[in-house]
Amino acid sequence: MKQVWGRSSKDMTTMPPPRHRGAAKKPMWIIVLLSLICVALMGAYVYPPRHYSACYFFASSVCTPFKDWLPAVVRERTDEEIVSSVVIRNLLSMPMAVSKNPKIAFMFLTPGSLPFEKLWEEFLQGHDGRYSIYIHASREIPVHSSSLFVGREIRSEKVVWGRISMVDAEKRLLANALEDVDNQFFVLLSDSCVPVHTFDYIYNYLMGTNVSFIDCFLDPGPHGTGRYSMEMLPEIEQRDFRKGAQWFAITRRHALLILADNLYYNKFKLYCKPAEERNCIADEHYLPTFFNMVDPGGIANWSVTHVDWSEGKWHPRSYRAADVTYELLKNITSVNENFRITSDDKKVVTRIPCMWNGTKRPCYLFARKFYPESLNNLLKLFSSYTSA
Ligand SMILES: *[C@@H]1O[C@H](CO)[C@@H](O)[C@H](O)[C@H]1NC(C)=O
Ligand SMILES: *[C@@H]1O[C@H](CO)[C@@H](O)[C@H](O)[C@H]1NC(C)=O
Ligand SMILES: *[C@@H]1O[C@H](CO)[C@@H](O)[C@H](O)[C@H]1NC(C)=O
Ligand SMILES: *[C@@H]1O[C@H](CO)[C@@H](O)[C@H](O)[C@H]1NC(C)=O
């Protein structure tokens, strides 16, 4: 070796080095480099970094959507994960009982009385046997203005905004509604929600599809991924974390899936809370993240409940009586693209067409938030804005 190097440097002083000299040195470098790569790869295989799953070493297409169910080459799955994956996979592939009399369950999550009972009554009139109503009143016993709502309260508990108690109330509504085997679609509504189409339109829209309308998107900003906590590892990685409005309309299969889930629910119960440094709101992240992980193709990724965030404030726009016009309601029913904006400095806007069974259709069946004072205007306009 020494001799070769010596000769080489001597050659350099006398004449330009022949081309093949550089080439002769290369194999040594390649061998050393390859050995280092091999050692590194073996190290990564034998001693995996604790919190990183196999997915970091594969193309993402291999890993989604069932990356957690890949053979545990690098990370050994926890007991809870094995239980969860087997239950979820079976629920997703199991044939569901077909109901002869399919109904929509309208599930109202409200502090107390429902100001729009009269409007819902108008909407539901003549459709007995095709719907059912459930009310979770968390603060006070509702006073009813429509007989259709009398006695429809379920046992309720206090709901604290942003806390897991909100998700618990949703699960309580689902459990009660699932008891009726005829309920096939489950719609979560608030006291400020109103229908923006006829009953038949909404019934056919929901019953004609097997996807759930769960809002879900990747927001890399502080109100999205910024709320993720490393404590959700190893089962929930940061890149799995999603955001979406809580107002869902879901299939019976997905309603069962939510009640069957313990693993992901507990992660959000323990590590997603409103706090000074990381203001995590469980009802905005649990279901979008969960469904994005276990059945991404089974959700539409948008909510059928309209809300106007265009004012860019902490709360969405609320409609006063004077705002409620034929034009406003027609505007809401004609939207057929889902609008999103990220919460980071880039404020990236995306518009996704609302695709229903392969065709672009209006996105919204319900809308919020309406002040109680707008009831009369809504009643007056209902038959005109819901007609085609
Ligand atoms: C959905 O689309 C398929 C294929 O275009 C069609 O066969 C089916 O009838 C549609 N379903 C409804 C409910 O329209
Ligand atoms: C929905 O139903 C169609 C046919 O009826 C089926 O091909 C598709 O896989 C189903 N999708 C889901 C998410 O269940
Ligand atoms: C919803 O988004 C997920 C993830 O981006 C995607 O895989 C899925 O196909 C989307 N669902 C529909 C119905 O397009
Ligand atoms: C309805 O939509 C049009 C077009 O986007 C807009 O100019 C108008 O201000 C909207 N009207 C209401 C009442 O929101």
Structure overview:
The chain is an alpha/beta fold. The protein has one domain. The chain is built from twelve helices and 13 strands. It has helices spanning 2-14, 19-46, 60-63, 79-93, 117-124, 164-178, 199-207, 252-260, 263-271, 282-294, 326-334, 375-385, and strands spanning 103-110, 131-137, 183-190, 194-195, 212-215, 249-251, 299-301, 305-306, 337-341, 349-353, 355-356, 359-360, 366-367. Strands 2-1-3-6 form a four-stranded mixed beta sheet, with helices on both faces. α5 (117-124) links the parallel β1 and β2 (131-137). The N and C termini lie far apart (89 Å). The protein binds 2-acetamido-2-deoxy-beta-D-glucopyranose (4 copies). The chain crosses the membrane at residues 28-47. Keywords: Glycoprotein, Glycosyltransferase, Membrane, Transferase, Transmembrane, Transmembrane helix. InterPro entries: BC10-like, Glyco_trans_14. It is a single-pass type II membrane protein. One of its GO terms (cellular component) is membrane.
What's the quick description here?
The protein is of the alpha/beta class and 388 residues long.
Which key features would you list for this structure?
alpha/beta, disordered N terminus, binds 2-acetamido-2-deoxy-beta-D-glucopyranose, transmembrane helix
Number of H/I helices: 12
What global shape is seen? globular
Number of domains: 1
Order of helices and strands: HHHHEHEHEEHEEHHHEEHEEEEEH
Beta-strand percent range: 5-15%
pLDDT < 50 runs, ≥5 residues? 1-24, 46-63
State the total count of DSSP E strands: 13
Main pleated sheet: 4 strands, mixed
